[in-house]
Amino acid sequence: MILSERFQQVLVEAKSVCVLTGAGVSAESGVPTFRGNEGLWSKFKPEELANFDAFIKNPKLVWEWYAYRRRVIGEVQPNPAHAALVDMESLFQDFTLVTQNVDNLHTRAGSKHVIELHGNIERSYCINCRRPSNEQITEENIPPRCSQCGGLIRPDVVWFGELLPQDQFMRAEAAAERCDLFLCVGTSAVVYPAASLPLTALEHGAYVVEINAEYTDLSSRVQETLLGKAGIILPQLVHHLKMAHTGGL
Fold first, then answer.
1. How confident is the model at residue 184 (pLDDT cuts 50, 70, 90)?
2. For 222, left (φ over 0), alpha (ψ -120 to 50), or beta?
3. pLDDT tens for each residue of 115-150
4. At how many degrees (to 10) do helices 166-178 and 196-203 cross?
5. By the 8 A CB rule, do 20 and 169 touch?
6. Are 67 and 119 spatial neighbours (Cβ–Cβ below 8 Å)?
7. Do the beta carbons of residue 144 and residue 133 sit within 8 Å?
8. What are the start-end ranges of the E strands in 40-187?
9. Which of 82, 106, 113, 118 is catalytic?
10. Interatomic CA distance for residues 88 and 185, integer angstroms
11. Mean pLDDT of the chain
């Protein structure tokens, strides 16, 4: 991969970096989109299950779907893109990793500070008392109940029609505003408000680079688009950084 001279300069000189990751990064680990699965779940669209009304109407069904998703995600491993972002965290003075993914793969890979805009499928909480739940979710206790108040436990993810966690989004927005370099990785950047982050970075003078398998609506607005797998491109960026830091470039 040949990097433009401008990108090489920004990459090496950047003091503050913000990265936004989407489903494309997880897909390289084998995480499916959970649309059109075979068997029972092929009858449902995610929109029909991932919303609060569906949960209240049939919590057992919704939890069975999430138990299935947890099993699938538990069987995959972080990929080289996740590992490269762990390395990047140690190479910049100010590094912020923002993800739209709920699969916890960034944390499993070793990233220490991850802003999870859409929550985390490995966490859950009570809809009544709002306490986080540490209870083991098994087929026998679906739908799970809160041990403190008896309320229904739900996955700690953002469902359709729900707002993003404001504290997480405000941190992400602040990182986009102050960064010198913004990387938009494996996302079509069309789902708002997450899609506003690269635009915020552009407005505040950051150099914005898109890394994706194909061109998106964002491509015409950013300084550069690198087409290909994140698991190939990100490790090459890390190699370039390490070479520059050791005087190899």
1. very high
2. beta
3. 999 999 999 999 999 999 987 777 778 899 998 999
4. 30
5. no
6. no
7. yes
8. 94-99, 114-116, 119-126, 153-157, 181-185
9. 118
10. 14
11. 92
Mean pLDDT of 216-235: 96
pLDDT at 1: 66
Bridge partner residues of 18 (DSSP): 96, 182
Q: Would the pLDDT of 248 be above 70? A: no
Quick one: 119 exposed, middle or buried, by C-beta within 10 A (0-12, 13-18, 19+)? Answer: buried
Q: What is the C-alpha to C-alpha distance for residues 235 and 179, in angstroms, rounded to an integer?
A: 21
What CA–CA distance (Å, rounded) separates 36 from 196? 28
Answer yes or no: 240 catalytic: no
Which residues does residue 28 pair with via DSSP β-bridges, in sequence order?
none
Distance CA 98, CA 189 (A): 13
What is the per-residue pLDDT across 17-50, written as a single tens digit (0 to 9) for each?
999 999 999 999 999 876 555 455 677 888 889 9
Query: Which is higher by pLDDT, 39 or 77?
Result: 77
Average pLDDT over residues 179-194: 92
The answer to whether residues 102 and 157 touch, using CB atoms and an 8 Å cutoff, is yes
Amino acid present at 66: Y
- Identity of residue 214: E
Q: How far is CA 16 from each of CA 24, 91, 111, 189, rounded to the nearest angstrom?
A: 24, 10, 16, 21
Decide if 187 contacts 212 (C-beta within 8 A): yes
